[in-house]
From TrEMBL:
GO CC aspect terms: outer membrane-bounded periplasmic space; plasma membrane
Lineage of source species: Bacteria, Pseudomonadati, Pseudomonadota, Betaproteobacteria, Burkholderiales
Molecular-function GO term, any one: lipopolysaccharide transmembrane transporter activity
UniProt keyword Cell membrane, yes or no: yes
A Pfam family recorded for this sequence: LptC
Entry keyword set: Cell inner membrane, Cell membrane, Membrane, Transmembrane, Transmembrane helix
Protein name per Swiss-Prot or TrEMBL: LPS export ABC transporter periplasmic protein LptC
Length: 214
């Protein structure tokens, strides 16, 4: 059968009609892809992404120690659970306890229910039932005898490099059988192993009787 130009045009038209849905779907797919690409922000590199404040590791019964210039332990931080955060290298501590070891003096213990250590390992915040404890000290050639010391507050900040423990919260201080209280906080100097209360101080100061247990 001979094909005339009219029959050829008719055949092409029918084929185009059959293909029209596919052509429309393909065009719609391309347009959708273009719109998605246009409205999607460029992916940032790993360095540019903001790191979330999420723990990257947890240690049970963890300990962190630092040495002084002589190679002796300067301080030791202990905790029932130590939680480290990758974004700022800070550490949360459950039932924290820091032991301070001044040269030629008794170790001082500062503890609380909760703690937070900054990423530079210079500031330890201790919250809830916070205590500073210095055991009694016998007299030496250069130092008089000292009774035990116990300070209680809801918050203590340990400035590790400065050997200072401070608070601006109400604090109660016991030295031997003497008891003092301040609503304005106080500062404990670990080098001198003494505490100075701020503001108005109330309480009682009593001498230890000879032979009595400090």
């Amino acid at each position: 059968m001979a094909l005339t130009p009219q029959k050829i045009k008719l055949s092409i038209g029918r084929n185009l009609l059959r293909l029209m849905p596919l052509i429309l779907m393909g065009t719609l797919t391309l347009v959708t892809f273009w719109l998605v690409k246009k409205n999607t922000p460029a992916e940032k590199s790993a360095i540019e992404r903001v790191r979330l404040h999420e723990p990257d590791y947890t240690i049970t019964n963890g300990a962190l120690s630092a040495l002084n210039e002589s190679g002796n332990t300067k301080y030791r931080v202990l905790g029932k659970k130590v939680i480290h955060y990758d974004d700022d290298a800070s550490i949360d501590i459950e039932t924290p306890r820091i032991r301070l070891f001044p040269p030629d003096k008794s170790a001082v213990t500062v503890k609380a229910d909760k703690g937070h250590l900054d990423g530079d390992l210079t500031v330890l915040d201790l919250m809830d039932n916070a205590e500073i404890f210095r055991p009694p000290q016998a007299a030496s050639a250069t130092e008089p005898a000292r009774p035990r010391m116990l300070a209680r507050s809801s918050y203590f900040k340990v400035l590790i490099n400065d050997d200072i423990v401070e608070t601006d919260k109400p604090v109660t201080l016991e030295q031997g059988i003497s008891v003092m209280h301040s609503n304005d906080g106080g500062i404990f100097n670990n080098i001198e192993q003494s505490m100075v209360l701020s503001g108005q101080v109330k309480g009682r100061i009593e001498r230890i009787q000879p032979g009595a247990q400090p």
